[in-house]
Design brief:
The structure holds three protein chains of three kinds. Chain B is mainly alpha-helical. Chain B contains 26 helices and three strands. Classes of the chains: A mainly alpha, B mainly alpha, C mainly alpha.
C-alpha cells in the first residue's frame, strides 16, 4: 500500500466519524465518533510523515492522542453531569436553549 | 455637458487657500465647549443643579453666541479671499496612512450657521425657561438642549466629513432624546423611535459616502476631497452626490424619508422650534451646499436634488393645508420650506446662496411661528387643535402680532423676509431653462400660493373669529420671558431678508465659498409678480373659507384630496404597503411566525427584516446535531469555494 | 519541528533552547494557574477564595508588566525586525502578538473581577457541579455557602491558552493552545449556580461542537503537513510560494484550518454554538468568552492567514468575503427578534465578529492594526455590558428576559444609562469607542478594495442599531413591569468592571488616538515569520 491510500482511508474514516456525529443521538456515541475523526487525522499524519520521510507527523500523532485524552476527561465529566440531572444521554433531549 | 455648469463662475471651497486661524479666531472651539460643559453639568450634576439649571442652560448658548459674534467680526476684518480659517484642535484618528484631525473650519458658510444656531438657539432657550417652568424635569431638558447646540455646532464647524458625521449623529441623538422627552406619552416614545429609525437609513447613506470618499481620495477633509474631486470620475461624483442626498433627505425630512418629522412634534414646543424647524432639519441643506464641489460635477445628482426639493415643497405644503393640529401644520410647512432650500441647492452655484439665505430667514420666522404656537398651546392647557382656538388676538396681543409678522414673512409679502429669499429661488428655478426649469419653477411658484393658503388658515383659525375654546381654558398673554424672544425673532423675520439680500450683501459675503449666482434682474420681475399674485389668491381663498365662515369644532367630512392630506398624503400608508405588507405577508407564510420581537418597529423595513429574523432564528433549533450539520455544510461549502477558486 | 526530527535522527538529544525572558508572560500565567491547583489541594475551603484572588489577579498584573517589558526591549525590534521566533520556532514574539496578549490580560483581569464577585453572599458558580440539580445534595451545598473555587485556576489555564494561541508559530502549538483554552471553558460553562440545566446543556453543546471543530482544524493541519512537510507557518508559506505539491491538499488545508478558527470567532456558518452557550453559561464566563476568547481567536486567525497564507490572499479572499457578509447580516438580523439579553448580545457579538472580518480581508498592516484596535475596545465594552447584566436580578437569579428590563431607566437611571451607553457604543455612535473601532475597520477594508463589503457592513450596522435602540427604548420609554427585577447595588468588583468598561468606551471614543497609534505601531511590521 502506498501512503496515498492511507490518506484516502483517513479521509474515509474522517467522513464516517463526521456522519456519525450527525446521525447518532447518544452523546457518548457522538463523542466516540469525534474520537474516530481524530484518529483518522492521526492516520493521515503518520501517512504523510512516511510520505515526506520526516518523523514530525508521528510525533504530532502522539500530541493528538494526549490532547484527545485530556478532552475525554473534560467531556466525560460534562456528559456525566448532564446524564445525572436528566437521566438521559440523548443529545436531542437537551434542548432548552434555542431560537 | 462637461459635468460643470458651463459659463457660470465656479469657485469651489477648495480653490481658496484655507489659512490657519490666528488671533481671536483661535478660540473658536470655545463655541463648542460652552454648551457641552452646560450639558455635562446639567446631566451629570443631578438634582443638585435643579435650582439654577435653567440659568446655566440659557447662559451657555448665549456665551457661544458671543464667541460666534467675535469670530464673525474678526472674519470681516480679512479680505474676502482669506476668510476661510482652520482651527486645529487635536489629532483624532490616525490609522495607518489615514489621518483625521479634529479641526474646525471657520468660513463664511459655517459662521452663518454658527450665528443662526447660537443666536436663535439662545432665544429659544430663553423662551423655554418660561415654557418649561412647570415641568419637574426642566434641568434635564436644558441639558439635552445644550447637548444639541454643541452637536449642531460641531456639525457645521467641522473641517472634515468624519467630524461632521460625529455632529450629525450627535444632533440625531439629542433630537431623539428630546422628541421622547415626555416619555410617559407612548406616542412620544414611538415618535422618538421612528425618528431614530428613519435617520438610520440616512446615516447609512452618509457613512457609505464617507467610505467611498476615503476609498477614492484617501482623505475625508473638505480641502482634500474637494481638491481632488474633479480627478474622480463622474460616476463617483454621482454616487457620492446621491449618497449624500440620502443622508440629507433623512435629516431634513425630505420625500421619501419625511415621515418622522410630523410625529416629532410630540416633543416640547421649544424643541420643535429649535431642532425641527430652525436648525437641525436644515443640516441636509448644509451638507449639500458644503459638498458643492462634488455636486457641481454631477448633473444627475443635482437633478435628483432638485426633484426631491420640488416634490417635498408641494408635499409639505399640501399636508400643511389639512392639519388641524397647529404644530403639525407648521411641521408640514417646515418640510415645504426646506424643500425650497433643497431645490435651490440642487440648482448649483445659481442657487446655493439663496438656499442658505432662505435657510437663515426661515430660522427666524419659523422659530418665531413655533414659539407663538407654543405660547398658545401653553395658555390653552396643551390644546393643539386649531378648531378649539379662535379669537386669541384679543387676549394674547403680543403673540398675535409676532405671529402675524412671521406669517407675512413666510408667505413672502414685500418687504418682509420671505419675499427677498423665496423669489430668487423661484426665479433661479425658471432660469435653469428647459422643461425641467419650467416644471421646477412652476412647482415652486404653486407652492408659494399653497403656502399663503395654509398659513393664512393657521393664522385665521387661531387668532381671529369666534372663541371655540374648551370650557376650562383661560388664556392670557404669556410672561415677558416668553414674549421677548418672540419679539426679537419677529424683528428678524421682518427685516433679515431685506438686510441680507438688498445690495447683494449676503451674496457677496458667501460667494467665495459657494460660487456666485448670476446677477439678479431687479426686484420686480414677471416671475415675482406672478408669485405675488398667487400668494394673494391663496390668502384670499383661505380668508373666504376660514375667515368669513364659521369654523366647525369637529373636522367636517371631507372628500378625497383633504382626506389624503390629513393622512400625510398616505405617507405612512405607502410605507406600510411597500414595506410592511409584503413583510407581513412573507412572515405569515412562514408557519413559525413569531411577532414578539417586531412589535414597536413599525413603518419601515423593520417588519421585513424582523420577519426574516423571525424565520432565521428558527434555524437555531436547539438540537446540537443540527448545529453540527450546519457546520458540516458550511465546511463543505468553504472547502468547495476554495478549491473552485483555484480552478 | 524540523529541528526536532533532526535532533532525533542524530540520536543525540540537544536540549532545546528556550527564551524564558520573552516567554515570561505566558509562563507567569500558567504558573499562577498551577499554583491555583495547589491552593485547591492544600488550603482550607474557607480561605481558598482569598488565595485564588491574590494569585489570579497578581499573576495577571505581573503578566501585563512582563508583556510591557518585553515590548519595550529594544533588541526585539532592532533593525526593523518584526520580532523574534522563540522556543525552537514554536512561538512568535512580535508586535501584534504582544498587543493581543496585553489586551487579553487586561480583559481577563476585568473578567476575573466579575467571576470573583460574591458581595451578596452568592457566588455565580455552582456549589457542587456534580450534584444533581434540585437534589438534597445540592441544597446542602448551597446552604453551606460553598462554591467551586476551581474556577480561578480553570480561568487562568484558559487565559494562558488564549495568550499562546495567537503567538503559536506552528500549527501543532496552535492546536495545543486551542485545546488548552477550550477545555477549561467547556467546564466553566457548566458551572452556573442558578438555572443549572441550561448551563449544563450549554457546556455539552459547546463541548461537542468544539471538539467537532477541533477535528476539522486538526485535519486541516494534517493536509497542510502533507502539502509542505512541516507544520511551521513560515514553512507552509515557503512551500506555497514554490508550489511544491498538490494544490488540493493546500486549499483543503486552508479551508479546514479556517473552519477551526472561524468556529472560535463565531463566524457564520459556524456560529450556531454561540447564542446557546452565551445564554447558558454563567454571565461572568460569558463575559470572558465574549471578550478574551474572541480576541485570541482573531489573533490566531490573523497570524495564520497573514503569515502562512499571506501569499495566497487572492485565493482565500472570496471565501472570506462570503463568510464576512453572512456573519454581519445573520448576526444583525437574527438579533432583532431576540428576547433574552444575553442571547441578543451573543448575536451582536457574531455581527461584530463580521465587522472585524472585513478588516481581516484587507490583509494589510492597516487591516491588522484596525482589527487590533477594534478587538481591544470591543472587548472592554462587552465586559462592561455583561457586568451590567449580572446586576439586574429577580429572586430566581439574573433577569435576562428583555421584558423584565422594561422601565429599568425609571428605577435605576444610572445603571440603565450606562447600559444604554454600551449599546450606543455597539451601534457605533460617534464619541464612543465603538465608532472609532468601526470606522477603523471599515476604512481599512475600503482602502483594501473591499468597498462592497463596507457597504454591507454599514447596512448591517444600521440594522443592528435597531435592536440596540429597541433595548434603550424598552429601558427608558416603557413602564416598568410590576414584578420587575431588582437592581442590586454593584459590589466592589462588579462596580469596578462596569466602571472600567464605561471609562474605556468613553475615553477611546473621544481620544482613540493613543491606542490607535499603539495598535498601528504594533502592526507596522506585521507578524514575525
Amino acid at each position: 500500500m502506498i501512503p496515498g491510500d492511507y490518506v484516502a482511508l483517513a479521509v474515509i474514516l474522517f467522513v464516517i466519524g463526521a456522519v456519525g456525529v450527525l446521525i447518532r443521538r447518544n452523546a457518548m456515541v457522538i463523542f466516540m465518533c469525534i474520537e474516530l475523526m481524530l484518529n483518522a487525522v492521526n492516520l493521515a499524519f503518520v501517512a504523510f510523515a512516511r510520505l515526506h520521510g520526516t518523523i514530525d507527523g508521528q510525533v504530532i500523532a502522539f500530541f493528538v492522542m494526549v490532547v484527545a485524552a485530556a478532552e475525554v476527561v473534560v467531556g466525560l465529566a460534562i456528559l456525566m453531569a448532564i446524564f445525572r440531572s436528566r437521566r438521559s444521554a440523548s443529545v436531542d433531549d437537551a434542548n432548552l436553549l434555542k431560537y | 455637458m462637461t459635468g460643470t455648469l458651463a459659463g457660470l463662475p465656479m469657485r469651489a471651497a477648495s480653490a481658496l487657500p484655507t489659512l490657519a486661524a490666528v488671533g481671536v479666531q483661535r478660540t473658536a472651539w470655545l463655541m463648542l465647549v460652552f454648551p457641552l460643559a452646560g450639558a455635562l453639568v446639567l446631566l451629570l450634576g443631578g438634582r443638585r443643579t435643579n435650582r439654577f439649571g435653567h440659568v446655566v442652560g440659557v447662559a451657555m448658548p448665549f456665551a457661544s453666541f458671543v464667541v460666534a459674534v467675535i469670530t464673525f467680526v474678526a472674519m470681516l476684518g480679512y479680505p474676502a479671499s482669506q476668510r476661510a480659517r482652520d482651527v486645529h484642535m487635536f489629532t483624532w484618528i490616525s490609522v495607518g496612512g489615514f489621518h483625521v484631525d479634529a479641526g474646525l473650519l471657520v468660513d463664511q458658510l459655517s459662521i452663518s450657521f454658527a450665528l443662526l444656531i447660537t443666536g436663535v438657539g439662545s432665544l429659544i432657550h430663553l423662551f423655554a425657561v418660561g415654557y418649561m417652568s412647570h415641568d419637574p424635569d426642566r434641568r434635564r431638558f436644558f441639558g439635552y438642549m445644550n447637548l444639541f447646540v454643541a452637536a449642531m455646532l460641531l456639525l457645521v464647524l467641522a473641517d472634515n466629513y468624519l467630524l461632521m458625521y460625529a455632529g450629525w449623529e450627535g444632533v440625531g441623538l439629542a433630537s431623539y432624546l428630546l422628541i421622547g422627552f415626555w416619555q410617559y406619552k407612548p406616542s412620544a416614545a414611538a415618535a422618538a423611535k421612528k425618528a431614530f429609525v428613519v435617520n438610520r437609513v440616512g446615516v447609512a447613506g452618509f457613512s457609505v459616502a464617507i467610505m467611498l470618499m476615503f476609498a477614492t481620495f484617501g482623505t475625508v477633509t473638505y480641502t482634500g476631497v474637494f481638491g481632488q474631486a474633479s480627478s474622480a470620475g463622474r460616476g463617483t461624483a454621482t454616487a457620492l452626490g446621491l449618497l449624500l442626498l440620502l443622508g440629507a433627505c433623512a435629516k431634513s425630512a425630505q420625500v421619501p424619508l419625511q415621515s418622522w418629522l410630523l410625529d416629532a412634534m410630540e416633543g416640547p414646543t421649544p424643541v420643535s422650534a429649535l431642532i425641527h424647524a430652525a436648525t437641525m432639519v436644515t443640516a441636509g441643506v448644509y451638507l449639500i451646499v458644503r459638498s458643492a464641489p462634488i455636486f457641481n460635477l454631477s448633473m444627475t445628482a443635482r437633478l435628483a436634488v432638485t426633484v426631491v426639493g420640488a416634490v417635498t415643497l408641494l408635499f409639505g405644503a399640501i399636508i400643511g393645508c389639512a392639519k388641524d393640529d397647529i404644530k403639525k401644520a407648521l411641521a408640514g410647512s417646515t418640510m415645504s420650506q426646506i424643500g425650497y432650500m433643497v431645490l435651490a441647492a440642487g440648482l448649483g452655484p445659481a442657487g446655493y446662496v439663496f438656499a442658505i439665505a432662505h435657510l437663515i430667514v426661515h430660522g427666524f420666522f419659523k422659530a418665531g411661528l413655533f414659539l407663538g404656537a407654543g405660547a398658545v398651546k401653553h395658555e390653552m392647557n396643551d390644546e393643539v387643535d386649531m378648531r378649539r382656538f379662535g379669537g386669541l388676538r384679543v387676549v394674547m396681543p403680543i403673540t398675535a402680532a409676532t405671529f402675524t409678522i412671521g406669517w407675512l414673512a413666510i408667505i413672502g409679502v414685500w418687504p418682509f423676509s420671505g419675499f427677498f429669499t423665496k423669489d430668487p429661488i423661484i426665479a433661479a428655478a425658471f432660469a435653469k431653462g428647459g422643461i425641467s426649469g419650467a416644471l421646477l419653477g412652476s412647482a415652486a411658484m404653486i407652492g408659494a400660493g399653497i403656502t399663503a393658503f395654509y398659513m393664512t388658515r393657521v393664522l385665521l383659525m387661531t387668532f381671529t373669529g369666534h372663541r371655540r375654546w374648551e370650557p376650562d381654558a383661560h388664556p392670557h398673554e404669556v410672561p415677558p420671558v416668553m414674549t421677548s424672544p418672540m419679539i426679537v425673532l419677529a424683528i428678524g423675520a421682518a427685516g433679515a431678508g431685506a438686510f441680507l439680500m438688498l445690495g447683494n450683501r449676503f451674496v457677496d459675503f458667501l460667494s467665495p465659498v459657494t460660487g456666485a449666482p448670476p446677477a439678479s434682474r431687479g426686484l420686480i420681475t414677471p416671475v415675482s409678480g406672478a408669485t405675488l399674485a398667487l400668494v394673494v389668491l391663496g390668502a384670499v381663498i383661505a380668508w373666504a373659507m376660514y375667515g368669513r365662515r364659521e369654523i366647525p369644532v369637529t373636522a367636517p367630512a371631507a372628500r378625497f384630496p383633504v382626506v389624503a392630506a390629513r393622512k400625510d398624503l398616505y405617507g405612512d400608508a405607502v410605507n406600510e404597503a411597500v414595506f410592511m405588507r409584503p413583510g407581513q405577508w412573507l412572515t405569515r407564510l412562514s408557519v413559525y411566525f413569531d411577532n414578539r420581537g417586531v412589535d414597536g418597529l413599525v413603518n419601515t423595513l423593520a417588519a421585513t427584516v424582523g420577519g426574516s429574523s423571525g424565520r432565521l432564528r428558527r434555524v437555531q433549533t436547539g438540537f446540537v446535531r443540527s448545529y453540527a450539520l450546519s457546520m458540516l455544510v458550511g465546511a463543505v461549502l468553504l472547502v468547495g469555494v476554495l478549491l473552485l477558486v483555484r480552478i | 519541528m524540523t529541528s526536532l526530527s533532526g535532533a532525533l535522527a542524530a540520536a543525540t538529544i540537544t536540549p532545546p533552547h528556550i527564551e524564558y525572558g520573552q516567554l515570561s508572560p505566558l509562563l507567569v500565567v500558567f504558573g499562577a494557574a498551577v499554583a491555583g491547583v495547589l491552593v485547591e489541594a492544600f488550603v482550607p475551603r474557607e480561605r481558598r477564595r482569598a488565595f485564588h484572588l491574590v494569585i489570579a489577579l497578581g499573576g495577571l498584573v505581573a503578566a501585563f508588566a512582563l508583556i510591557i517589558s518585553v515590548a519595550a526591549t529594544p533588541s526585539l525590534f532592532a533593525h526593523g525586525s518584526p520580532g523574534h521566533v522563540v522556543a525552537m520556532g514554536a512561538v512568535g514574539v512580535d508586535g501584534p502578538t504582544l498587543f493581543i496578549q496585553g489586551t487579553i490580560v487586561v480583559l481577563a483581569f476585568v473578567s476575573v473581577l466579575l467571576i470573583a464577585e460574591s458581595s451578596h453572599g452568592v457566588s455565580p458558580f455552582a456549589a457542587q457541579a456534580a450534584a444533581v440539580p434540585g437534589s438534597a445534595e445540592e441544597r446542602e451545598g448551597l446552604l453551606r455557602g460553598i462554591s467551586h473555587t476551581e474556577v480561578y485556576p480553570l480561568t487562568l489555564f484558559a487565559v494562558g491558552g488564549m495568550m499562546l494561541f495567537p503567538a503559536a508559530n506552528d500549527l501543532l502549538t496552535m492546536f495545543v493552545a486551542l485545546e488548552v483554552l477550550s477545555l477549561p471553558l467547556y467546564l466553566l460553562c457548566g458551572l452556573a449556580r442558578r438555572r443549572r440545566l441550561i448551563s449544563q446543556e450549554a457546556a455539552m453543546k459547546y463541548f461537542l461542537l468544539g471538539a467537532f471543530s477541533s477535528a476539522f482544524f486538526l485535519f486541516g493541519v494534517a493536509m497542510l503537513y502533507g502539502y509542505s512537510g512541516s507544520v511551521s507557518l513560515s514553512a507552509i508559506a515557503a512551500a506555497a510560494a514554490t508550489n511544491v505539491s498538490s494544490a488540493t491538499l493546500l486549499y483543503a488545508g486552508i479551508a479546514l484550518v479556517g473552519i477551526g478558527l472561524l468556529f472560535k470567532i463565531g463566524a457564520v456558518p459556524f456560529q450556531s454554538w454561540k447564542p446557546d452557550v452565551y445564554q447558558g453559561a454563567p454571565t461572568a464566563v460569558t463575559a470572558l468568552m465574549a471578550s478574551c476568547t474572541v480576541v485570541s481567536a482573531f489573533g490566531g486567525l490573523l497570524r495564520v492567514f497573514y503569515v502562512a497564507f499571506g501569499q495566497l490572499t487572492w485565493d482565500w479572499r472570496p471565501a472570506m468575503w462570503g463568510v464576512a457578509i453572512l456573519t454581519m447580516l445573520a448576526g444583525a438580523i437574527i438579533a432583532i427578534t431576540q428576547t433574552d439579553v444575553k442571547r441578543m448580545l451573543a448575536y451582536s457579538s457574531i455581527a461584530h465578529g463580521g465587522f472585524v472580518l472585513t478588516a481581516v480581508v484587507a490583509a494589510t498592516a492597516a487591516g491588522l492594526s484596525a482589527s487590533l484596535f477594534y478587538l481591544a475596545v470591543y472587548g472592554l465594552t462587552t465586559i462592561g455590558a455583561f457586568a451590567v447584566v449580572t446586576l439586574v436580578r429577580d429572586p430566581a437569579g439574573e433577569a435576562n428576559h428583555l421584558s423584565k428590563w422594561a422601565g429599568l431607566g425609571k428605577r435605576s437611571p444610572w445603571l440603565a444609562g450606562v447600559f444604554a451607553f454600551f449599546l450606543l457604543a455597539f451601534a457605533g455612535i460617534p464619541l464612543t469607542s465603538g465608532f472609532a473601532g468601526k470606522f477603523a475597520v471599515f476604512q481599512a477594508a475600503a482602502a483594501g478594495g473591499a468597498l462592497p463589503l463596507v457597504i454591507i457592513g454599514v447596512l448591517a450596522s444600521a440594522v443592528a442599531a435597531f435592536f440596540y435602540v429597541r433595548v434603550i427604548v424598552l429601558m427608558f420609554f416603557s413602564d416598568p413591569a410590576p414584578d420587575g427585577p431588582t437592581v442590586v447595588t454593584p459590589g466592589l468588583f462588579t462596580g469596578a468592571a462596569v466602571a472600567v468598561g464605561a471609562a474605556a468606551t468613553l475615553v477611546f471614543g473621544i481620544a482613540p488616538e493613543p491606542l490607535l497609534a499603539l495598535a498601528s505601531h504594533a502592526a507596522a511590521h506585521l507578524f514575525v515569520r
